[in-house]
Amino acid sequence: MNINYSSTAKISADQAIDLYIRSTLGERRPIHNHQAFENMYQHANLIISAWDGDKLVGISRSLTDFSYVAYLSDLAVDVQYQKQGIGKQLIEKTKSDLEPECMLVLLAAPKAREYYGPLGFEQHPSAWTLKKSVK
Q: Which of 16, 51, 74, 117 is deepest in the core (most CB within 10 A)?
């Protein structure tokens, strides 16, 4: 299998939603809100994608200043392509687009909590989130 990685490929909301469903990340993302996905991809400033031919099989979507911190908001790999190093490569390619001292921060999905430690991430005990209340 020859996986190609890109930091310039245009990804449509439909492609992203389809991948999120195939990766299980769709369980925690607004996959039924097309406009939200349009905004997520329009406003992210570092996106690395993984392709098997013309099929999107992985994505790393980050918000960053490129120097101090990058928030890796989404790391998704199609379940049929997992355990082949694609997620690790997406993280490495994300890091390579950042300054050497730039910190990479993420919130792990429940199913992925054990994934990040072996890749060099350290668990941080004081992360906080504030969700907008739904009316």
A: 16
Cα dist from 110 to 33, 36, 51, 59, 126, whole Å: 22, 22, 25, 18, 17
Mean pLDDT, the chain cut into blocks of 10 residues (135 residues total): 93 92 86 88 95 96 97 95 96 96 88 81 83 68
Number of alpha carbons in the 13 Å side-chain half-sphere of residue 108: 15
pTM: 0.89
How many Å apart are CA 16 and CA 49, to the nearest integer?
Answer: 10
**Which tokens is 68 given?**
């101090």
What residue ranges in the chain does DSSP mark as E strands?
A: 3-6, 46-52, 55-64, 69-77, 103-105
**71, two tokens:** 């928030």
Burial (CB count within 10 angstroms: exposed 0-12, middle 13-18, buried 19+), residue 23:
buried
Q: Which residues contact 97 (CB under 8 A, 6 or more apart)?
A: 7, 46, 48, 66
Structure tokens at 39: 């905004």
For 68, phi and psi rounded to 5 degrees?
A: -105, -50
